[in-house]
Automatic annotation (TrEMBL):
<dbReference type="InterPro" id="IPR000917">
    <property type="entry name" value="Sulfatase_N"/>
</dbReference>
<keyword id="KW-0479">Metal-binding</keyword>
<dbReference type="Pfam" id="PF00884">
    <property type="entry name" value="Sulfatase"/>
</dbReference>
<protein>
    <submittedName>
        <fullName>Sulfatase-like hydrolase/transferase</fullName>
    </submittedName>
</protein>
<dbReference type="InterPro" id="IPR017850">
    <property type="entry name" value="Alkaline_phosphatase_core_sf"/>
</dbReference>
<keyword id="KW-0378">Hydrolase</keyword>
<feature type="domain" description="Sulfatase N-terminal">
    <location>
        <begin position="5"/>
        <end position="352"/>
    </location>
</feature>
Length: 469
């Protein structure tokens, strides 16, 4: 029986898809990711299942949309939940993650056999048998906790003689990851390699997630080069403002400083990945034998449409970079513009590694697209988020439908004629039929006034096969 391939899963946090050299950005320096893209396959229309950290990561892990896995808001998967790490561990893979997974419940491993430089943290609601009156005795002092978006932008800056919190966390994840790979393939002290089994290694970094701090050298390079967004919010009641933050009123100098920090953080992430790839090559590994994936959990508005952070269904927030490289398995140097989702990576990895795809996923294998052959692809992608109500995005071809509950108007963007997402075509007679189809699909997904009460999952074709919804 042949050996299953090793997998290197690289992930960042809050990386908008258009701030990368391989995406056509002429300012940011991402030579490592650009080389992966040059020799791999780039998905130019990859989307997150939820434009916010925690549910996006639970969906990626489970191969299911938020409604299917029960993580529509700031909620963790149930202990023992089937994740791709847990599934691959069943097939004798050594599964290790260095860095951020953002699990908050008692099951901090979620199927990973090893976690190093981990972001382990149990949220208050998952504490066993909490004594409510004891928790009520303590309250946060004014000014502690999450900053407002206003302050995030105002506080962005280069940091001298010190590391920002996420710069430190990422450096620890990279250094720990490199030491792990050394021990795995060629232990410098004990000379006891563990590489008789296949490896699934995930390096998950926190940058370029805010706060926007960076080193002075990178900041100086980017400060006068970065493009900035200085726009007014649209007049839609949900798209315009965050329900958790007041409007951000900053000047162009503030925006430029924050944007320069953001670009610098992406630059640093790229360098971190280069160190890991260089180490693997130094250990004698042929990277052409490895399946290498790069993606992020969601994007960042960066002031576009007058908005910062994520949580929106604008392209800057809901779209993600996605590269898959495996020269021994499929031809690289290509881009694919089909609508795909981070949920699809579960089934994709299973099929690439000849592992049976479990039932009940919202995950379609991307292998037929990667191999370049004909396939029946629905070209649909779905994203969901809970912000006081259930918000849903359904994208079919270039049309992007958004539902914000019965209290707010629907939104329909047509990216083929309005890539800047400035015109709402929901009431346009020319799109009446499309709107009817989107509303029907919304019901099938368990949302809206006619929501299917028997919803189980997105209803894609059988696991391991590419199909329509």
């Amino acid at each position: 029986m042949k050996q299953r391939p090793n997998i290197l899963f690289l992930m960042s946090d809050e990386h908008r898809a258009d701030v990368a050299g391989f995406a056509g950005n002429k300012v940011v320096r991402t030579p490592v990711l650009d080389e992966l893209a040059r020799t791999g396959v780039v998905f130019t229309n990859a989307y997150t299942p939820a434009p916010i950290c925690v549910p996006a990561r639970q969906c990626l892990a489970s191969g299911q949309l938020p409604k299917t896995c029960g993580c529509e808001g700031w909620t963790d998967l149930q202990p023992g939940y089937r994740t791709f790490a847990r599934e691959f561990s069943r097939y004798a893979y050594n599964t290790c993650c260095s860095g951020k997974l953002h699990h908050m419940g008692q099951d901090q491993m979620m199927g990973w056999r090893e976690r190093i430089a981990a972001d382990t943290h149990i949220d208050d609601k998952y504490v066993d048998d909490p004594i409510a009156e004891e928790f009520e005795r303590y309250s946060k002092a004014p000014g502690t906790g999450k900053w407002s978006n206003q302050r995030e932008v105002e506080e962005s800056r280069p940091v001298y003689n010190h590391e920002g919190p996420y710069q430190f966390q990422d450096r620890m994840a990279v250094e720990a990851g490199i030491h792990y790979l050394e021990r795995y393939f060629k232990d410098p002290l004990y000379q006891r390699p563990q590489s008789h089994r296949p490896l699934l290694f995930k390096l998950s970094l926190v940058q370029p997630h805010y706060p926007y701090f960076t080193d002075p050298e990178r900041f100086e390079y980017y400060h006068d080069r970065v493009p900035i967004y200085s726009e007014e919010p649209c007049d839609h009641p949900v798209l315009s403002l965050s329900q958790l933050n007041k409007p951000v009123n900053v000047n162009d100098a503030d925006i430029r400083r924050a944007t320069a920090c953001y670009y610098s953080m992406i630059d640093q992430v790229d360098c971190h990945y280069g160190k890991v790839l260089d180490k693997l090559k130094a250990l004698g590994e042929d990277l052409d034998d490895w399946i290498i994936i790069y993606t992020s959990d969601h994007g960042e508005m960066l002031g576009q449409h007058g908005i910062w952070e994520k949580t929106r269904f604008y392209e800057a927030s809901v779209k993600v970079p996605l590269i898959i490289r495996w020269p021994k398995g499929f031809e690289g140097g290509r881009s694919i513009d089909a609508n795909v989702n981070l949920c699809d990576l579960f089934a994709t990895l299973c099929e690439l590694c000849e592992i049976e795809v479990p039932d009940g996923l919202d995950s379609r294998s991307l292998v037929p697209l990667l191999q370049g052959g004909p396939c029946d692809w629905s070209n649909e992608t779905v994203s969901q988020v809970y912000r006081g109500d259930h918000y849903v995005m359904i994208k079919q071809d270039a049309l992007k439908y958004q539902y914000y509950g019965e209290k707010f108007p629907e939104v329909l963007f047509d990216l083929s004629v309005d890539p800047g997402e400035t015109c709402n075509y929901a009431e346009d007679p020319e799109y009446r039929e499309a709107m009817q189809q989107f509303r029907q699909r919304l019901s099938e997904l368990g949302y809206g006034p006619q929501a299917d009460p028997n919803y189980l999952n997105a209803g894609y074709h059988a696991p391991g096969k590419v199909g329509s919804g």
